[in-house]
Design a protein that fits this description.
Blueprint (H helix, E strand, L loop, with lengths): L3 H14 L31 H11 L20 E3 L5 E3 L3 H4 L8 H7 L2 H9 L11 H7 L11 E5 L2 H21 L6 H7 L11 E5 L18 H4 L9 E2 L12 H22 L5 E6 L13 H14 L3 E4 L25 E4 L6 E5 L25
Parallel strand pairs: 4-5, 4-6, 6-7, 7-8
Antiparallel strand pairs: 1-2, 3-9, 8-9
Helix pairs in contact: 1-4, 10-11
Family: Belongs to the class-III pyridoxal-phosphate-dependent aminotransferase family.
Pfam family, one: Aminotran_3
Keywords: Aminotransferase, Pyridoxal phosphate, Transferase
Length: about 375
């Protein structure tokens, strides 16, 4: 019998095919909360008094996160969010761009209330050791059905930061496997890594771009360069960063300037990789298709084609961070598909609109031992259908 989770996935895909990413998520049955005709403000300001009261209470019990207001999700629908004071707002934020079809979509509610979905939610399988019997079928019907061209493997994770961190680990493991050239790991390596020392703990680096954002967890912060407040007071790896092309617009009026910017960036990549070989070799390069959190910064497909070619020449795997751009936001399911690459990236990370995190990757990034890229749940199993 086809699992309810698979039906959930098919419902999502059907909505995407019908243009659900571009249209308001209108209710499909009378039992769902109807989407409002438009915004409605009941209080003198937003946040209203009830939200302000709850903010004061929350800030005494957890880290203050700059809460905008408290929401009433039972009354929210489609593209509109309702707060605890009864204000109805057109939601351009959509939970940091992680809500694919708006609030309380009835097609997804129906499947989420099924027995199978409930079982997976409360049992939280440790997917790396005891996945459900139809796990491969679910991967094929969901994540692998939209895999970037040329990448036929996927590792699930919980969020974008942990997807990037584990993808970076895979890049390091790939580099060291090449250095060993088939020899077994030595006892010296095993002993020294327990002390965070050479040779078991190698001095390697990841190359990123200035103004990029790849997450807030401890390791990946060394690649994040968008805002100082993210990194302040936190120890970091001394990993290099280079300039992303700084275009002038309109593009057709600044072709010479923009071509120079692209060349400058590519030269910096090559020079940095070569310079790092003597100290902390670059095990991989990470890039966003759009430097979103850093300021909505774009580059032409021609630049990314040249970057892909340069990475291949330098034997530096290319990791494309599609946490913010993946899921159909850019006209194709993955933004990098618009580059027209001759060969795929070595890895693509995702999260947000896919409702879990993960890594698509090539065969050359498969670790040589089990449990090297692993955590308890490896993502939220009940979300795989989405």
């Amino acid at each position: 019998m086809q699992s309810s989770l698979l039906k959930y996935r098919q419902a999502v895909m059907a909505l995407r095919t019908a243009g659900g990413l571009l249209r308001p998520a209108r209710p499909m049955s009378s039992s769902a909360v109807a989407e409002p005709a438009g915004p409605s403000i009941r209080t003198d300001s937003v946040p209203g008094p009830r939200s302000k009261q709850l903010m004061e209470e929350a800030n005494k019990k957890q880290l203050p996160h700059g809460i905008y207001f408290f929401a009433d999700y039972s009354k929210s629908s489609g593209n509109y969010i309702v707060d605890v004071d009864g204000n109805t707002l057109l939601d351009m934020f959509m939970q940091i761009s992680s809500l694919p079809f708006g609030y309380n979509h009835p097609a997804l509610q129906k499947v989420a209330q099924s027995k199978e979905f409930l079982e997976m939610s409360i049992n939280r399988p440790a997917l790396g050791v005891c996945p459900p019997s139809d796990w491969v079928d679910r991967l094929n019907a969901s994540l692998l059905s939209v895999a970037p061209k040329g990448l036929s493997r996927v590792q699930t994770m919980m969020c974008g930061s942990c997807a990037n961190e584990n993808a970076i680990k895979m890049l390091f493991m790939r580099y060291m496997a090449k250095q060993r050239a088939g020899r077994p790991v030595s006892q010296q390596e095993l002993d020294s890594t327990m002390l965070n020392e050479l040779p078991g703990t190698p001095r390697l680096s990841i190359l990123s771009f200035k103004r990029s954002f790849h997450g807030r967890t401890l390791g990946v912060l060394s690649c994040t360069r968008s805002k100082a407040i993210h990194k302040l007071d936190v120890p970091a790896f001394q990993w290099p960063a280079v300039d992303f092309p700084a275009y002038k617009y309109p593009l057709e009026q600044h072709q010479e300037h923009n071509a120079k910017q692209e060349k400058l960036s590519l030269v910096q990549v090559e020079e940095t990789v070569n310079r790092q070989r003597a100290t902390e070799p670059v095990a991989g390069l990470i890039v966003e298709p759009i430097l979103a959190e850093g300021g909505d910064i774009h580059a032409r497909p021609e630049y990314f084609k040249a970057l892909r070619s340069l990475c291949s020449k330098l034997d530096v795997p290319l990791l494309v961070d599609e946490v913010q751009t993946g899921g159909g936001l850019c006209g194709t399911y993955w933004a990098h598909e618009q580059w027209g690459l001759d060969s795929p990236p070595d890895a693509v990370t995702f999260s947000k609109r896919t409702l879990l995190g993960g890594i698509y990757f090539s065969d050359n990034l498969v670790p040589d031992q089990q449990y090297r890229v692993y955590n308890t749940w490896l993502g939220a199993q009940q979300s795989h259908a989405a």
